[in-house]
Amino acid sequence: MEDRRMIPIHSAINRPNLFMGGDRELVMFTALLAVALIFAAQEWFACVFGVVLWTVALYLLRLMAKNDPQLRHVYLRHRRYKAFYPAQSTPFKSLKQP
Fold first, then answer.
1. At what angle do helices 44-67 and 24-41 cross, to 10 degrees?
2. Largest CA distance in the chain
């Protein structure tokens, strides 16, 4: 009766793809924006604003990843859904509207 195999699932395979505690792509994109702002403007105010932007964005992205590491993917899938799906009685119904 005990013919089941035990297959270990390693945590490294299922670990979310995070960088510095936040979503990898969002953290690197905000870093790129902050660095581009600093080097494009070349002023002290832009440097301070870029550093503040980077630290605030990193803090918020860490909070987001702590709540749900896959939140960006969930949001992007949510954006693909339509606002309204009309009821259909059967899957074989014509998709043309009267």
1. 170
2. 74
DSSP letter (8 states) at residue 90: -
Where is 72: in which H helix or E strand? helix 71-80
Where are the alpha helices (H) located in 42-70, listed in sequence order? 44-67
- Helices and strands, number each (H, E), in the chain: 4, 2
Q: In what helix (H) or strand (E) does residue 23 lie, and over which residues does it extend?
A: strand 22-23
Nearest to 58 by CA among 16, 28, 36: 28
Round to whole Å and give the CA distance between 13 and 58. 25
- Which tens digits make up the pLDDT trace of 50-74? 999 999 999 999 999 999 998 999 9
Decide: 44 and 2 in contact? Cβ < 8 Å. no
Which position has the token pair 């945590």? 11
Does 6 score more than 90 pLDDT?
A: no
